[in-house]
Amino acid sequence: MPIEANFNPNDPALLDFLKQIPLLQCLDETELNSFTSLLQLFSYNSGEPVYKVGSMRDTIYFVHEGRLSFEKSGYIIRFFDQQDVFGDYSLINNSPHSSTIHATEPTELLEVRLADLQDESKFTSGAYGKLCKQFAYLLTTRRRHEEEMYSEIDVLVVQDGGCAPGYNSVTAFLTEFLEKSGRRVFAASEGFRSLVSGDLRDFRRVVYSGSLYRLIEDFHGVVFTPPLREARGADFRSERYPDFKELENQKRAAENIKKRKVKAIIGIGGDGTLAGMQSLGELLPDEIQMFFVPVTIDSDIYGTDCIGQYTGVEVGAEKIRCYMADARTHGRCYIIEMMGREGGYHALHSCLGAGAHLAVLPDSRYNMKRVAKAIENRHATVIVVAEGYRAKERKSNNLKESAAEYFYKELLDAGLNTAQRVVCEAFSRDIRGALPNNTDITLAQRMAKKLTFLMQTGQTKMMPAVLSGQEYAIPFDDIRTHNTVSSDLAVLANRLGV
Ligand SMILES: Nc1ncnc2c1ncn2[C@@H]1O[C@H](COP(=O)(O)OP(=O)(O)OP(=O)(O)O)[C@@H](O)[C@H]1O
Ligand SMILES: O=P(O)(O)OC[C@H]1O[C@](O)(CO)[C@@H](O)[C@@H]1O
């Protein structure tokens, strides 16, 4: 239980303290004195709650000394320190508290009951009205600051495409390096879709500096990025947005970009995202700088390592090793479908790393009778099929089979007759959610640094690239997206000798 402490309501230091608080700056000297006479001072021990979620709003609290945590759904959202005010929502909202407040160190709070403020014999209705108005003013100015913050977007990051390890990492590093070079960085909340919609709620402010974050953390959409360096997933996007291929939508996005005075746009993703950026580039003035960062497990951007490809192969190979052990144990044949729409980089390298028996790539054409025979002579087999295998054929014939199932069907047509139970596994999307490994995090860091340099030196329509340890930059017009894999490696991955 908090302990009520004595204090002198006429203490000049106390009056000075109260005059610093924006909520009370609307009161004149007399009103402030009568307000002060309604205050009570309470001491809280460290860990003691002030109020809990669900309790009634009936008090406004002023932090006189100490520190408190503001918690929602078990998370600490922020801290309150000396001169901070909480509970002031009770001036306009009489629903129960949606948060819990705990003292995190010995704390003193000056408290005023709402019932006392509303009692005309203690506080005039005029002064109470002023307090309510002042609270509304503070709320709306915050909203105005938010509007202002998003009305001039400096650098805008747009993540699209399928998730891959490293989206979050590169966004965190871009924020760090660009902010350190004096830029303000923002992100579209949901990729290209947000550019078309263009509402304030479609944008986020991404922040690297802790002190800057503390200043603006209450504003809409502010995200502290350092923890994203190592985070899984892609925080600023949702489902794909195929409608961005429509010119009308691209035009709407271009208008919104100009309306929000964007100075530079960075697209992050695979070849589809690059195509979206290139289309946008046609509709925007040259002064708006444009960049692209390749993040894709399947490495479908030529001339550079792609962020996500190393984690993808590491996790993909480990997944195949598990199938190899299971296949050996049960005497089975697994046909695993892995990423690889065009070149098949991910499927091939994962297969190689794990020492699986055959990689079936989008362009592979095997003699299926020989493959069937080779399987029949084995106790256990693991075959990796890239998702793009016979994709056009399957699509044009409207076939429902996945690439793995289609390959199995071809084997059956070729007369496969094996004691091994054959199991086709579903497409391995799970790898997209893997934790980025050190190589991809380092690659993300290098590309972010290179991009910052390109931006600072006034370049545009460029992609930072890293190949064989060297950093480059490739102009948009020279980026090739058909990334074929080495045929020597495809031979190495053929342990069936077919
Ligand atoms: N030809 C195009 N023109 C304009 N926008 C496009 C085009 N192709 C794709 N996009 C946009 O880019 C987004 C991402 O494309 P896509 O789904 O092909 O992923 P990606 O960037 O290639 O990444 P990944 O291949 O790793 O999934 C799409 O949701 C769409 O909004
Ligand atoms: O999960 P979705 O939307 O079907 O996307 C599948 C595509 O995404 C990717 O996994 C890339 O992220 C491709 O390899 C694949 O073609």
- Give the cofactors and ligands: adenosine-5'-triphosphate, 6-O-phosphono-beta-D-fructofuranose
The structural domain count equals 3
The CATH class name of the largest domain reads Alpha Beta
Beta content comes to 15-25%
Q: Level of helix content? A: 25-40%
Within the CATH hierarchy, at the fold level, what is the topology of the largest domain? Rossmann fold
Largest sheet: 6 strands, mixed
Biggest sheet: strand arrangement: 13-12-11-10-14-15
Uncertain runs with pLDDT below 50, 5 residues or more?
Answer: none
CATH architecture designation of the largest domain: 3-Layer(aba) Sandwich
Instruction: Give the termini distance in whole angstroms.
Output: 79 Å
Q: How many separate helices?
A: 16
Provide the gyration radius in Å: 30 Å
Instruction: Give the overall form.
Output: elongated
- Structural class category: alpha/beta
Mean pLDDT across the residues is 94
Explain how this protein is built.
- The N and C termini lie far apart (79 Å).
- The mean pLDDT is 94.
- The protein has helices at residues 12-19, 29-37, 114-117, 125-151, 167-180, 191-197, 210-216, 247-259, 271-283, 309-330, 345-354, 368-376, 391-396, 403-413, 438-456, 487-492, and strands at residues 3-5, 40-44, 49-51, 59-65, 68-72, 75-80, 85-86, 100-103, 107-113, 155-159, 185-188, 203-207, 222-224, 264-269, 289-294, 332-338, 358-360, 381-386, 421-425, 462-467, 470-475.
- The strands form five sheets. Strands 13-12-11-10-14-15 form a six-stranded mixed β-sheet, with helices on both faces. The protein has a five-stranded antiparallel β-sheet with strand order 1-2-9-4-7.
- It has three domains: 3-140, Sandwich (Jelly Rolls), CATH 2.60.120.10; 155-307 and 436-467, Rossmann fold (3-Layer(aba) Sandwich), CATH 3.40.50.450; 309-434 and 487-492, 3-Layer(aba) Sandwich (Rossmann fold), CATH 3.40.50.
- It is built from 16 helices and 21 strands.
- With 498 residues, the protein is α/β, with parallel strands linked by helices.
- The chain is elongated and about 100 Å long.
- Helix 12 (368-376) links the parallel strand 17 and strand 18.
- Helix 5 packs parallel to helix 15 and helix 10 (309-330) crosses helix 11.
- Residues 160-162, 164, 192, 240-242, 244-245, 269-273, 275-276, 279, 296, 300 line the site of adenosine-5'-triphosphate.
- 6-O-phosphono-beta-D-fructofuranose binds at residues 162, 164, 240, 298, 339, 341, 387, 429, 432.
